[in-house]
Amino acid sequence: HFPRMSISTTQGKAARSYYQVIERFYQTLADGTRLPLTRVRLTPETGRTHQLRIHCQYIGHPILGCDLYGGLLLSGTEHTPRLMLHACELHFIHPISEQPMDIYLPSPF
Q1: Contact status, residue 50 vs residue 3, Cβ threshold 8 Å
Q2: Cβ atoms 90, 103 nearer than 8 A
């Protein structure tokens, strides 16, 4: 099932993420169904492949629009236009200039 990854306590590499609930709300669908949603701030401490997607699925709250880890399973989520994951902040050292880079871009959703 590449590129799907999993959690393995015996063979996996350590991965740590932090989350903070920002807002809880409901999206009313065309049929009147109310889809419960939560906006969160996710902060990965490590950088494993699909880390944030897997951690959210593991705690029972998959990222909306995630086709690999359950983010399209609830009724009404099949119309989600994209993966609802957005990097609002990036911090790194530029590989050529060696200058610190601090990039901020608010979430479009």
Answers
A1: yes
A2: yes
Let me know the angle formed at the C-alpha of 39 by 3 and 47, rounded to the nearest 5 degrees: 40
Give me the mean pLDDT over the 32-42 stretch.
92
- pTM metric for this prediction: 0.84
Per-residue burial over 12-44, b = 16 or more CB atoms within 10 Å of its CB, e = otherwise: eeebebeeeeeeeeeeeeeeeeeeeeeebebee
What mean pLDDT is reported for the chain? 91
Please answer whether residues 36 and 24 qualify as being in contact, where contact means their C-beta atoms are separated by less than 8 angstroms. yes
SS3 assignment, position 40: strand
What confidence tens digit (pLDDT) does each residue in 45-85 have?
Answer: 999 999 999 999 999 999 999 999 999 998 888 889 999 99
Distance CA 87, CA 41 (A): 10
